Amino acid sequence: MMSKSKEFFQNLFKPFKFNSDKDWRNGDDLQKIAQQEQKHFPFEILVAATNNFSHHQKLGEGGFGPVYRGKLDDGREIAVKKLSHSSNQGKKEFENEARLLAQVQHRNVVNLLGYCVHGQEKLLVYEYITNESPDKILFKSNRKWELDWMRRYEIISGVARGLLYLHEDSHNRIIHRDIKAGNILLDDKWIPKIADFGMARLFPEDQTHVNTRVAGTNGYMAPEYVMNGHLSAKADVFSFGVVVLELISGQRNSSFNLDVNAHSLLDWAYKLYKKGKSMEFMDPVLASSAVPEQLASCIQIGLLCTQGDPHIRPDMSRVVILQSKRPGSLEEPTRPAVPGTRYRRSRRPLGFSSTTATSSLSDSHSSGSIFNTNTASASTSALASPVRSDPHGKCSVQS
């Protein structure tokens, strides 16, 4: 069993290069460090923690397989992601998430505690996150009041810091590719943690962008990414901007219909901003708790992050700085872009790259946390065609 575990660790860390730090030179060093940090969990420990993977401990299920809640002997609560033997796409996302989170440690990123390989079984062990995602609280319940302005502002700030870490401060530059309200988890202190790295990609330090297959969630994807597979950190910035505007308004972008003259939540925000009526964009339940200056600043930041030209969107280091500035001192946004939506077309429009793929799948309205007790099962079979549906509401398509 030790040989299988060693092989898993070696394969897990192959993609990582840590030339700038002598402590991270090869997979063997990383394996030793992982063992020292007790990253490897014996299978028997996880069986006991989850009551033999009891149905009553099940939090949810996706293309990778089921997720179970558990409790270790030391009292720590955990979420155990168990790879399904029959899931090819899930295997890719599972292993991708393991690789990318292996060396990630940040207050605003979900913590991968360790791994387990036992025969054919492969499992990832995470910290258990108590509260639901903003997606569920804002859009799928009558509990909006639980997210007052202070909590929403802290979510915005925390996600910004988490993305800054992934883009600039982690050992490897990581682009998440699926930032949305459903992939932000809130702990017992309402601290936000970015989760679900199944779609994430390592990003070469010496490149401004890469071309890749399109994957993400309708309503959050940057237009240049959807139309030609052009992926950069600015794609995450765009998605972050959508999340900011959703948190402020309490409205979901992909199903926005409050104003017949606005084709999206972003467009509505911009029109009110230009009229000097940004406060009308605010979720009414925030009326008693909102700090007008902070709210106006965040609306402007959300609009700057969703600009059509990725070159004029701020990077996340700039976003963190902008949050401390007064609205009047921020750059003036132009009309935001229409978020990328992937749907089947009968013909390619001009400028449509050969790397682009489209999907007939509808928007995702459910990608809740897999680390809380209220997550429903969302397992979906993959389609036989090159276009595949993702159980978390993401669209994943081969180029």
From TrEMBL:
This protein's record includes keyword Kinase: yes
InterPro entries hit by this protein: CR_Ser/Thr_kinase (IPR052059), Kinase-like_dom_sf (IPR011009), Prot_kinase_dom (IPR000719), Ser-Thr/Tyr_kinase_cat_dom (IPR001245), Ser/Thr_kinase_AS (IPR008271)
Which CDD domains does the record associate with it? STKc_IRAK
State one Pfam family annotation: PK_Tyr_Ser-Thr
Q: Where is the composition biased (Low complexity)?
A: 353-385
Q: Does the keyword Metal-binding apply?
A: no
Q: Which residues form the Protein kinase domain?
A: 53-338
The UniProt keywords, alphabetically, are:
ATP-binding, Kinase, Nucleotide-binding, Transferase
> GO MF annotations for this entry?
ATP binding; protein kinase activity
Name of the protein in its database record:
Cysteine-rich receptor-like protein kinase 10
